[in-house]
Design goal:
The complex is a heterodimer. Chain A is α/β, with parallel strands linked by helices. Chain A has helices at about 10-15, 20-35, 40-45, 65-80, 135-140, 185-190, 205-215, 240-255, 260-290, 300, 310-320; strands spanning about 55-60, 85-90, 100, 115-120, 150, 170-175, 195, 230. Chain A contains 11 helices and 8 strands. Chain B has a single domain, classed as Cobalamin-binding domain (Rossmann fold). Chain B has helices at about 20-30, 45-55, 70-80, 100-105, 120-130, and strands at about 5-15, 35-45, 60-65, 90-95, 110-115. Classes of the chains: A alpha/beta, B alpha/beta. The structure holds cobalamin, guanosine-5'-triphosphate and magnesium ion.
Chain lengths: ~325, ~130
């Protein structure tokens, strides 16, 4: 018999599929504890996933991502979808602790049993998401949530990890960030499928939208098919419907053009590679490094008693990778 | 690899707007390595418990300076019982007269910290609960 505190995953999944938010919370905690959904969990989830439309919401700090998420959830709730939200905030690089504050903007969703919200810390990961994010998406997908919205940490320019988890990326900008949209540069611009200029109630939103348009037009890969740019005021709940419709429309386009399948295949490949690497590291490389650690050699490297590359080769030899580099 | 992190929900139930204490506690706990889910002001006990369950937290900490502690703490305990979630610890602080504290503990509140309580007492209380 499974211990009371540790019901098995199968059990939790069955309960989660009936909408038990406690069971879902537990499953996601398990995913977080190991960093990724392990093979036992994934084997059980796999048959149930692939239905959810996964939307990533990214943009600079304070752009209104959480407020938008709240409003978008309400739009889909009106259409009777069960909606999942994963909201990521950064962890402190010093203590590993975190303050996860996105729920402050979503408080009136707490009692809606058709909504599941999970706050996650990056747990030291760069790129704007946590490692466990993709496993958490699988859990919510398997429990019938669709769509699933992922709010990334407030990003600068290179935090593009969300594209490895979401089907579609919504990039949020706001007026007043400076002349050349300082806060959303190349990396972020390239991953956007839909662009939103939030806080359109403030002056300068038209100009931000124009600048975005110009920047997107300069990308030759997009010239034929510029992503939509929508203005909204999440706070005043204006333009939210149009934004959600635009997201839905993009999804149908991607479905018809096979783009969705291609993206998911790419993601699956990445996920599996990360999974293999993780296990390789834990089970093969870690023990070898424990025998002959980097730390125990630093002094020898510094004083030229041992060549660092000889050490590296020695580690590889221990895990039976020898010879010239491929 | 990542391991089990202690997650704590910090909330301000009821209508009072004194959120300084709650914010100080949230920061203190973050700096002590906890994952704090901060839900902000004006939460009903129902919202707090629903959020705590979805977030799979280990503990709920509430801050009450309004004088309504005699209702809010026991109500949250009651809801946790209804949800079969009494493994979630409830603690808190604020303007709470010493005379009221025994009754709250009797109801199931793990600990209460009043103004002037050293922050180290709060982190010590948690680390003694969650020592690995
Ligand atoms: C600052 C303050 C305000 C500020 C609040 C600013 C803010 N955003 O927080 C302002 C000016 C807005 C304000 C307004 C009012 N206030 Co005022 N305010 C205070 C004051 C002077 C200090 C509170 C404070 O911030 N302390 C600093 C923080 C860090 O301390 P703390 O919250 O107590 O937290 C410590 C512990 O209690 C504990 N703790 C607290 N919460 C938690 C949670 C957890 C999980 C844990 C572990 C520990 C913990 O740990 C902390 C560190 O030691 C107190 C008097 C006092 N000396 O306490 C009155 C006081 C709280 N206010 C009071 C009143 C009456 C009001 C008003 C109704 C006044 C009015 N008539 O307009 C309004 C109501 C506002 C509202 N919307 O609710 C009364 C409450 C009386 C009561 N409970 O019976 C007090 C006690 C003053 C008094 N003696 O009459 N107030
Ligand atoms: N004027 C205006 N303010 C808004 C709008 N949407 C959000 N805000 C405000 O912007 C601030 C930040 O909003 P959040 O939703 O927390 O922003 P965020 O992008 O989630 O922030 P982080 O998660 O911290 O990066 C809050 O004070 C909101 O009230 C809007 O449409 N117009
Ligand atoms: Mg946010």
């Amino acid at each position: 018999m499974p211990h009371k505190e540790q019901p098995d995953f199968q059990d939790l999944l069955a309960r989660g599929q009936e909408g038990d938010r406690r069971a879902i919370g537990r499953m996601i905690s398990r995913v977080e504890a190991s960093g990724v959904a392990d093979h036992v969990m994934m084997q059980q989830l796999w048959a149930h996933i692939g239905r959810a439309r996964v939307v990533g919401i990214t943009g600079p700090p304070g752009a209104g991502k959480s407020t938008m998420t709240d409003r978008m959830v309400k739009y889909w709730r009106k259409k009777d979808y069960r909606v999942g939200v994963i909201a990521v905030d950064p962890s402190s690089p010093f203590t590993g602790g975190a303050i996860l504050g996105d729920r402050v903007r979503m408080n009136d969703l707490a009692l809606d049993t058709g909504v599941y919200i999970r706050s996650m810390s990056t747990r030291g990961q760069l790129g704007g998401l946590s490692l466990a994010c993709s496993g958490a998406v699988s859990v919510l997908d398997a429990c019938g949530y669709d769509p699933i919205l992922i709010e990334t940490v407030g990003v600068g320019q290179s935090e593009v990890a969300v594209m490895n988890v979401a089907d579609l990326v919504l990039v949020v900008s706001v007026p007043g960030l400076g002349d050349d949209i300082q806060a959303i540069k190349a990396g972020i611009l390239e991953i956007g499928d839909v662009f939103a200029v939030n806080k359109a109630d403030l002056p300068g939103a038209d100009r931000t939208a124009r600048e975005l348009h110009i920047m997107l037009s300069m990308n030759p890969e997009l010239s034929a098919d510029l992503p939509p740019i929508l203005m909204l005021s999440a706070e005043q709940n204006k333009g939210v419907e149009e934004l959600c419709e635009s997201v839905e429309e993009r999804f149908s386009l991607m479905q018809n053009s096979q783009e969705l399948i291609m993206r998911r295949n790419r993601r699956l490949e990445k996920e599996l590679m990360a999974y293999i690497q993780n296990r390789l590291y834990k089970q093969v490389l870690s023990p070898a490094l424990a025998n002959d650690s980097f730390e125990s050699n630093v002094e020898a490297f510094r004083t030229n008693k041992r060549n660092p590359y000889t050490w590296a080769e020695n580690i590889l030899k221990q895990i039976q990778i020898e010879g010239s580099t491929p | 690899m990542a391991d089990k992190k202690i997650r704590i929900l910090i909330a301000k139930p009821g209508l009072d707007g004194h959120d300084r204490g709650a914010k100080v506690i949230a920061r203190t706990l973050r700096d002590a390595g906890y994952e704090v889910i901060y839900t902000g002001l004006r939460q009903s006990p129902e919202q707090i418990v629903a959020a705590a369950i979805s977030e799979d937290v280990d503990a709920i900490g509430i801050s009450v300076l309004s004088g309504a502690h005699g209702y809010l703490f026991p109500r949250i305990i009651e809801l946790l019982k209804e949800q079969n979630a009494t493994d979630i610890l409830l603690f808190g602080g604020g303007i709470i007269p010493d005379d009221d504290i025994p009754a709250l503990k009797e109801a199931g509140v793990a600990e209460i910290f009043t103004p002037g309580a050293p922050l180290a007492d709060i982190t010590n209380f948690l680390s003694s609960r969650y020592a690995s």
